[in-house]
Design goal:
The chain has 275 residues and is α/β, with parallel strands linked by helices. 29% of the residues lie in helices and 13% in strands. The protein has two domains: 178 residues, NADH:ubiquinone oxidoreductase-like, 20kDa subunit (Rossmann fold); 85 residues, Cytochrome-c3 Hydrogenase, Chain A, domain 2, CATH 4.10.480. The mean pLDDT is 93. The chain binds iron/sulfur cluster and FE3-S4 cluster (F3S). Keywords: 3Fe-4S, 4Fe-4S, Iron, Iron-sulfur, Metal-binding, Oxidoreductase, Signal.
Length: 275
């Protein structure tokens, strides 16, 4: 990969489970070590850096100064806004996540929100959302934002954004929800390997029945592929090994706005009732 310059990256974890960081470690083509050593300059990442405590805080400040208006700010996790943000604080100063995000965003070139929590609030924002969890675009309005939802975000889609920026200095074309069109321009349902069975009216009716064993469509078991936009069927997870529908479960719409509440029951979506 020919890069213009190694892209400085600051990655912060807020109200999250670090699942997107775990996914990031499983990139391939390039692998995460090629990525970190040759393509980006990972200046701060709590999971992947050696310093801790005050040394880590100092590293963050140094990186912000050295790469002011150059760094990509990756944000993982939602932002708790209730009670003046007291449900999430960080560092020895006790800075709230809201203030932390706003301060780091101010000197960033652009922001990449990874995972459904950072993009749309995700599981922390599920009802009754006691912490007032929100996504990055609800807090920051003065910087370019790229949203890469899913739980976790597919590392292939993170790589796509990083490599495009490293090679061209450009961010990808986005849709109205700030998602890259290259990844979120298509419905799961339209690229699904079980679609032929949907069209033929062959559905799994009960977990483990003959249709399940034959790999038939999971629509009647609540698959949300018809109303979910993502490239899971083509890119897959775990280095192209599998994805939810291939594993026999169906899509639960983890990358859609409103996940988790919107899709909290495993029912077939009524607008697409095949009967
Ligand atoms: Fe695939 Fe789900 Fe669509 Fe069936 S309903 S074809 S399993 S995406
Ligand atoms: Fe999520 Fe559905 Fe893909 S559950 S990982 S958007 S198949």
């Amino acid at each position: 990969v020919q890069v213009l310059n190694r892209v400085p990256v600051i990655w912060i974890n807020l109200q999250d489970c670090a699942g997107n960081s775990e996914a990031f470690l499983r990139t391939d083509g390039p692998t995460v070590d090629e990525l970190i050593l040759e393509i980006i300059s990972l200046e701060f990442h709590e999971l992947l850096m050696a310093p801790s405590g005050e040394h880590a805080e100092q590293q963050l400040e140094n990186a912000m100064t050295t790469f002011k208006n150059e760094y990509l700010l990756f944000v993982e996790g939602a932002i708790p806004t209730a009670e003046n943000g007291i449900y999430g604080t960080i560092g020895t100063s006790g800075e709230t996540y809201v203030d932390h995000l706003v301060r780091l965003s101010a000197d960033a070139k652009a922001i990449v929100a990874v995972g459904t929590c950072a993009t749309f609030g995700g599981i922390p924002a599920a009802a009754p959302n006691p912490t007032g969890a929100r996504g990055v675009m609800d807090i920051v309005s003065n910087k370019p934002i790229v949203n890469i939802p899913a739980c976790p975000a597919n590392p292939a889609n993170m790589l796509g954004v990083i490599l495009l920026y490293a090679m061209t200095g450009e961010l990808p074309e986005l849709d109205s929800l700030l998602r890259p069109k290259f990844a979120f321009g298509y419905r799961i349902h339209d690229a699904c390997e079980r679609r032929v069975h949907f069209d033929a009216g062959e559905y799994v009716e009960e977990w483990g029945d003959a249709s399940a064993q034959a790999g038939h469509c999971l629509y009647k078991m609540g698959c949300k592929g018809p109303v979910t936009f993502n490239n899971c069927p083509t890119v897959k997870y775990n280095r192209g090994t599998s994805w939810p529908v291939a594993a026999g479960h169906g899509c639960i719409g983890c990358s859609e706005p409103g996940f988790f509440d919107k899709f909290d029951r495993f029912e077939a979506p009524t607008p697409f009732n095949p009967n």
